Amino acid sequence: MKKFTAVFAFVLLVSSFSFGQFSGKSSLGLLAGFGGGGLTGNGAIPIAAEFNFYNYSDKLQLGAFAGYSSTTADIVSTYKFTYTYIIVAGQGTYHFSPGEKFDPFAGVALGYNIGSVSNDLPSNLSSFYSSTAGGLFYSGFAGFNYWLSQNFAVQARVGYFPYVGAGITYNM
Prior knowledge:
The protein is 11% helix and 58% strand. The chain is mainly beta. It has an 8-stranded antiparallel β-barrel with strand order 1-2-3-4-5-6-7-8.
């Protein structure tokens, strides 16, 4: 925890002296957070990546988003169930203050989700408790980038996947 606090303090200090912003370039983002696809148990830390590759205007970006989360649950301390959730989506992001250090955004996503459960039950029971499911989904999201330099930002985001997330964004 001390190491995290020191790194966080350093990032805040550096950011106070830098002059970054959303530049209307393609961007790559990596996120980690809490919640996604209903998975909130042990080990369910969703990770996600976004690649915004088409800049329709200086305020509107289009791109792709992918996320993964997995958790396990022990049943009667003998058997283990593993729940996995994967999403792939296209997204559109509207930046309210392009060119500013504090860059709030909102967007929509349309994609496909895949959920599965597996277990280590004996083979005669295993198939009764294993399954997959999936389908199309749509979602809204919102957040902000805080630009530390011209190419790097920290990002906070709320929405469908992860429900609450933080990460970094890199302008390409």
